[in-house]
């Protein structure tokens, strides 16, 4: 199969009970893989939780022309302000499902490939190590420790289509507009982030009844409002970036 490697992943192979026997997720620095991601893919179902801590924006796929939602985690390329030097995510902050799922990834199968199931679970082998909480038990069966991850993988795949539908709806209704975020921290380096899109609230307010009903039918209107409210988090993100710059100067 020709599988596109997701951002942050080093590679993907099919999870195999023989090849990965006795291995589990790395115990330390698990989230280091996302340290260079300043945008994390999120699904529509988690917009409300994500919006409490991150700006939620839309980015355009240059290959398809479609849009996808991202939680912004940094104002510079290759910078995630929520991961420490130890490779752990900041405590008391919602961790997007995309991050919690690593090093696993679900690939939806179709046609003949789907005869044994609709989702093929793949893994980034750099995220595995010998572990007492292995994916497979001594008999090669899925362990109880892996069941929550299986559930998360399935839920994320199930959330993909509603997320695509949300993005398609706001695109077709002409609600998106490009914008950029930039900050000029005192004594620090200018930070500027481009290539983002947001819902134009004036255009949203001008929608006719039939279009509003279309958005309400699948719970998309509430997701849009969560996105709009989340944009206030850019201020906190800028404060976080400025604090990191200041700490870096003190260390150097």
Instruction: Tell me about the largest β-sheet.
Output: 3 strands, antiparallel
Contiguous runs where pLDDT drops below 50 for at least 5 residues: none
User: Alpha-carbon distance between the termini?
Assistant: 47 Å
Helix and strand succession?
EEEHEEHEEEHEEHHHH
Q: DSSP strand (E) fraction?
A: 15-25%
Please give the order of strands in the largest beta sheet: 1-7-6
Mean pLDDT: 90
Supply the key terms.
3-stranded antiparallel β-sheet; 252 residues; 7 helices; 10 strands; 19% strand; 32% helix; single chain; alpha+beta
Written overview of the protein:
The protein is α+β, with helices and mostly antiparallel strands and 252 residues long. The chain has seven helices and ten strands. The strands form four sheets. It has a three-stranded antiparallel sheet with strand order 1-7-6, covered by helices on one side. The chain is globular and about 60 Å long. The mean pLDDT is 90.
């Amino acid at each position: 199969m020709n599988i596109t490697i997701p951002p942050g992943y080093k590679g993907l192979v099919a999870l195999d009970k023989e090849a990965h026997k006795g291995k589990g997720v790395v115990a330390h620095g698990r989230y280091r893989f996302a340290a260079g991601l300043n945008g994390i893919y999120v699904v529509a179902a988690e917009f409300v939780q994500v919006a409490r801590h991150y700006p939620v924006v839309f980015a355009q796929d240059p290959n398809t022309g479609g849009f996808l939602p991202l939680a912004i985690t940094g104002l510079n390329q290759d910078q995630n302000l929520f991961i420490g030097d130890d490779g752990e995510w900041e405590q008391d902050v919602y961790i997007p499902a995309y991050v919690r799922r690593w090093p696993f990834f679900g690939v939806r199968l179709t046609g003949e490939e789907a005869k044994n199931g609709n989702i093929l679970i793949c893994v980034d082998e750099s995220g595995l190590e010998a572990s007492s909480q292995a994916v497979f038990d001594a008999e090669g069966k899925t362990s109880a420790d892996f069941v929550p991850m299986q559930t998360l993988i399935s839920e994320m795949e199930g959330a993909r289509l509603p997320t695509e539908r949300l993005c398609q709806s706001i695109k077709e209704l002409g609600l998106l507009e490009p914008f950029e975020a930039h900050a000029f921290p005192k004594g620090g380096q200018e930070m500027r982030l481009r290539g983002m899109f947001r819902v134009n609230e004036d255009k949203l307010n001008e929608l006719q009844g039939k279009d509003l009903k279309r958005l309400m039918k699948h719970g998309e209107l509430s997701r849009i409002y969560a996105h709009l409210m989340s944009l206030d988090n850019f201020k906190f993100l800028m404060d976080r970036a400025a604090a990191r710059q200041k700490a870096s100067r003190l260390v150097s």
